[in-house]
Write a structure and sequence with these properties.
Layout lengths: L2 H16 L32 E3 L7 E2 L2 E7 L5 E6 L2 E9 L20 E10 L6 E16 L2 E20 L2 E8 L2 E8 L10 E4 L5 E2 L5 E5 L2 E5 L3 E5 L5 E4 L2 E5 L2 E5 L9 E4 L1 E6 L5
Antiparallel strand pairs: 1-3, 1-8, 2-3, 3-4, 4-5, 5-6, 6-11, 7-8, 8-9, 9-10, 10-19, 10-20, 12-13, 13-14, 14-20, 15-16, 15-19, 17-18
C-alpha cells in the first residue's frame, strides 16, 4: 500500500477515534502554537462543503450508533453524523522544521503532531430515524483502506443529510453551509415541538445571549447557536414567521413555540457556528 495512503489512514483513524472516544472535552496532542496548515489534503473526504457517505469504508460505531457520513473540512473542523447524534471535531497540525536524512526522502517527522477537540450533540429520547441524503454532488470517491482492503468504489458526495422520523412526526434536515451547520426541524401538522431534546457533551454550559441565541465556551474556542427562526407556510404559499425560543433545563436543549397553527406544518430553523483556537477561524 502506498505510504501516502497509509499516512492518510493513520491520521483519519486518529480523528475518528477522537470523534468516538469517551473523553469529550479535553484538548489533546501537541499544545504548542499550531500551524494554520490543515491536513485536509491527507484526509479521505470530499470537496468543500459536502458530506461523504459512509458505505463501509469507516467501520465506526459510537454511543449514538453507526457513523453515517463525514463532512469536508470547514472552518478548522469536521462534522461526523451518527444515527442519533452529531460530533464536531476541531483539529490543527503543528509542523515543526524537519531534518532530511541525506540521500533519502525520509524526514524526522513523517506524521506531524496535531491537536484535537471535540463535542458531541446527542438527540435525547429520539426514535430510530430513517436516514437518507439529498442534493447529490457530481463527484465520487474510491477507498482502498485497511478497513476495506478490497475497496469501496463510487462513494457519493452530498450537500445534505436527512433524518426522517427522528421524533414523532418530526424530521431533521442538515446542510453544511459557509459559516456553519444549517439544521431544520420539520414538523408535520399536530407534531409536538416539545419532543425535541438535545444535549451537548463536552461543549460547556450554554449561556443565553442578548439576541436569544446560545453560546458555549470551551477550551478550544466557542460554539454559537442562533436564536431559532420558525415559520409556517399558508395555503397560498406565503411564509408566516412564528415566535419560538430556546429552552434549557438541566443541560437539555429544546424549543418553545407559544402559538402556532397545529393544522399546518412547522419549521424550526437554528444555525450552528463554531470557532477555534486550534487553527480554524
Amino acid at each position: 500500500m502506498p505510504m501516502k495512503t497509509v499516512l492518510a489512514w493513520v491520521i483519519f483513524s486518529f480523528i475518528l477515534h477522537s470523534a468516538t472516544s469517551a473523553d469529550c472535552a479535553a484538548v489533546s496532542g501537541d499544545q504548542r502554537p499550531m500551524s494554520p496548515t490543515a491536513v485536509s489534503g491527507l484526509m479521505p473526504v470530499s470537496s468543500p462543503l459536502s458530506l461523504t457517505e459512509n458505505r463501509g469504508q469507516w467501520p465506526i460505531d459510537s454511543d449514538a450508533g453507526a457513523l453515517l457520513a463525514v463532512s469536508s473540512l470547514h472552518e478548522g473542523a469536521r462534522l461526523f453524523f451518527f444515527v442519533r447524534g452529531i460530533s464536531l471535531v476541531h483539529y490543527a497540525v503543528h509542523q515543526p522544521p524537519t531534518t532530511s536524512v541525506p540521500g533519502s526522502e525520509l524526514h524526522d517527522s513523517a506524521v506531524p503532531p496535531f491537536a484535537t477537540w471535540r463535542a458531541d450533540l446527542r438527540f435525547r429520547g429520539c426514535l430510530e430515524p430513517t436516514v437518507d441524503f439529498t442534493d447529490a454532488i457530481d463527484e465520487y470517491r474510491h477507498y482502498y483502506l485497511p478497513a476495506a482492503p478490497e475497496g469501496v468504489d463510487r462513494v457519493p458526495a452530498w450537500r445534505s443529510i436527512r433524518y426522517r422520523g427522528l421524533y414523532p412526526g418530526i424530521d431533521l434536515h442538515c446542510t453544511v453551509q459557509d459559516g456553519g451547520l444549517k439544521y431544520e426541524f420539520r414538523l408535520q401538522p399536530g407534531a409536538d415541538p416539545g419532543a425535541i431534546a438535545m444535549e451537548w457533551i463536552g461543549a460547556g454550559n450554554p449561556v443565553l445571549t442578548r439576541k436569544q441565541g446560545l453560546l458555549f465556551r470551551h477550551p478550544a474556542g466557542e460554539l454559537r447557536d442562533e436564536a431559532p427562526f420558525s415559520w409556517q407556510q399558508a395555503a397560498h404559499g406565503a411564509i408566516h414567521p412564528t415566535e419560538s425560543f430556546w429552552t434549557v433545563e438541566d443541560g437539555i436543549l429544546g424549543f418553545a413555540v407559544p402559538a402556532w397553527d397545529r393544522d399546518r406544518s412547522l419549521v424550526i430553523d437554528p444555525f450552528l457556528q463554531w470557532s477555534t483556537f486550534l487553527g480554524g477561524s
